[in-house]
Write a structure and sequence with these properties.
homodimer, about 425 residues, alpha/beta, Rossmann fold, 14 strands
Chain lengths: ~425, ~425
């Protein structure tokens, strides 16, 4: 764990080093992925089934007719879920839906003083593919967070792919798909599933955009199919930054740091505080809490390798540090949390006050938990309804308004050496 | 030029072939670009100057101190512009600014029935780099279209890079930079300029996002730096699709098809019509107009290799064809243009009626001319203010509202095997 102090003479360099710590191991899987995508493009269902048999250890009995998860299987999954968990999923889904409903953008059409009518219209994507990882990283909450904004946007076809290695599936994942309005579910994963979504096979019609987290193969496949389809961000390891003053409860802060650290050995938890006492108390509290945490091995490695406690003299010093870190999650547990939050430019999501642990936002707060990682909050936003819509601009001139605009367009066309552009305007004005 | 007819028995296959025609020659420059980026990351200004001397044919006299274009040079460029062109640029800038001002998104904060406060805040990116090509593809109108939305978004630092091969610059490009509020201009281009924007050098501070069109080297560099910074779309060759009925003027339609074709031999112009007479008349009009067009060699190659005239029995047949083509520009010159436009899902920009040639939108209409190409209007939008802003979601619970949400979060955390998540909530509720 790294301890920094803004009053140290080497602080600037120390902090710069913290910023550039590389947490992701970039496996070089690009050649393998290229081959898998080419295989699915060429072989369709046959290739998709072959890869799935191989990577998910399914036998010869697995054929193209088993690719799609049936309505009966989904109904059975709903039955198999613990009722309490299903109820919690429903509660979360309703809150996520309500929050995202406020993000649906408005259309606009206006006619200006010259008589030119212009504006735009938002439309939903025609189809979307949602990748859901298998195994231990198969989170029903992520299904809700990806699918519900697509439903709110009005996407008429939402497709989900989820690998079922050794034939094992997570009933809560299928239940979440059902609750959030997914239209089709296929039991495939990896680069082969991304290829099927992007290019289509006999069984899986292609989609316009692929979203959702995945391992190195999935990430490489998304990069490769970008252009053929849209993709969302490439997610990196998760991270939290907590600003807390001397009034904060060290056990609560420690719990939040560890909730992040338990995700992944590459996760990162950072505390910035103006209180030496809090810094010390949190450090001790983390050690205490670790001893009873089920995922303590993961959390301990993350905290040891990437955790940090930064002492500042005043929170005004913290603001530029936050903006440079551009954290995925920012908790502010200070007396003036709201005022401080307004000074921050770069953060994926902000959690205000000591009664808003980040985990609330992972599940039931309402805002999306798919957020920019690895400092990309400097230039991108969390997932939302806009990611499932696109804007078409509209322009309409009357003969009179074309006469008002035309001369400038002709001048600019000619000044750019594009006489054909100029003529397409001039011909309508008899110029 | 391809002629298709929806009543032909082979139409489905013919149209599918039209969709998959590959117009872009993908040069394999990735290894070269990788080397250039690594060079700039390691060597900073020294490497940037070396590459610029080499690629832009500048002598030993070109040093780091000459990288930045001075205020005096920009003032001199303004003096050197033809007054009519400068006036047209000012007119265009004002219209583009007015249109984009309507795109600034609103913030939101609401407290729900449970007492949970949530919402979001939009903030401008802290800095943006705008790539402007040199030579013949150096369009002042593109400077306006890229920089003005950034200014409207409130980006406090807008940087422009433009190569000046053999020391030659385009005064209108510098004037456009001045008019649209660019803060810094550097005379560099190619992959080395993209690397400098993304990673910074001694002279050029790094930016958060790189936008703007460029050649194969620039496109490859943008793909490579994505993640380190944000990027806009990778632009392909331009395209227009025109829907026109028997009332349309064939000479006007021909002029619009050629305005697109003159851009690039890889540009594509397509007409869909329900009138055999119009189809024939447009084909003849294109041939006539070509003979006097300055860029007829380019336009003729584009029309010959990628142009198409598609006959349909009724425009209802055209709607799914349009959505599959997902054109960058869609002109609708039919009697019921507006009603027809509302049936279209996928198009970058729509130009309504016979007095709205696409070239008006290139310059002075108001909407952005940076639009999704190569069928990417299925999943993406033209450039706008939102591309220069990002959204931070905000969540705040009171002790009471945490008590209302907590149990569901604890249940979901445990069901996902994330006990640390559950505990960070439970500890605050004494559960």
């Amino acid at each position: 764990m790294i301890r920094l102090d803004s009053s140290d003479p080497t602080f600037a360099e120390d902090f710069a080093r913290l910023l550039t710590v590389k947490r992701e191991i970039s496996e070089d899987v690009d050649e393998t992925v290229r081959g898998i995508i080419a295989g699915v493009v060429k072989g369709g269902d046959t290739a998709l089934v072959d890869y799935t048999r191989q990577f998910d250890r399914l036998g010869e009995g697995f054929t193209a007719s088993a690719l799609r998860v049936t309505e009966d299987e989904i109904a059975a999954a709903l039955q198999a879920c613990p009722p309490e968990a299903l109820e919690a999923l429903r509660f979360a889904a309703a809150r996520i839906e309500a929050f995202h409903a406020g993000q649906v953008p408005g259309d606009r059409m206006e006619t200006d003083a010259l008589g030119v009518t212009s504006g735009w219209r938002w439309t939903a994507l025609e189809s979307v593919g949602l990748y859901v990882p298998g195994g231990t990283a198969s989170y029903p909450s992520s299904v809700l967070m990806n699918a519900i904004p697509a439903r709110v946007a009005g996407v008429p076809r939402i497709v989900m792919v989820v690998p079922m290695p050794d034939g094992q599936s997570n009933p809560l994942v299928l239940a979440a798909a059902h609750l959030s309005g997914v239209h089709e579910v296929y039991r495939v994963g990896g680069a082969q599933a991304v290829a099927a979504l992007a290019y289509g096979t006999e069984t899986i019609a292609p989609v316009a955009k692929v979203v959702g987290p995945g391992n190195a193969y999935v990430a490489a496949a998304k990069r490769r199919v970008f252009g053929q389809v849209g993709i969302d961000m490439i997610a990196g390891p998760s991270e939290v930054l907590i600003l807390a003053d001397g009034h904060a409860n060290p056990d609560w802060i420690a719990a939040d740091l560890l909730a992040q650290a338990e995700h992944d050995v590459a996760a990162q938890s950072i505390l910035i505080t103006d209180s030496a006492e809090l810094a010390e108390a949190v450090e001790a509290a983390v050690e205490r809490a670790l001893t009873t945490l089920p995922r303590q091995e993961i959390a301990r490695a993350s905290w040891r390798d990437y955790g940090a406690i930064v002492r500042v003299r005043h929170f005004d010093e913290a603001v530029p540090l936050v903006d440079r870190l551009a954290p995925e999650h920012l908790e502010i547990e200070t007396q003036d949390a709201e005022a401080l939050s307004k000074k921050i430019r770069n953060a994926g999501a902000i959690f205000l006050g000591s009664h808003t642990p980040e985990a609330i936002g992972d599940y039931v707060g309402g805002p999306n938990h798919v957020l920019p990682t690895a400092r990309s909050a400097r230039f991108s936003s969390g997932l939302g309804v806009l990611d499932f819509m696109k804007r078409t601009t509209i322009l309409a001139c009357t003969p009179e308004s074309l006469r008002a605009l035309g001369p400038a367009a002709i001048t600019l066309g000619r000044s750019e050496g594009l006489e054909g552009h100029a003529r397409s305007v001039a011909i309508r004005l008899n110029l």
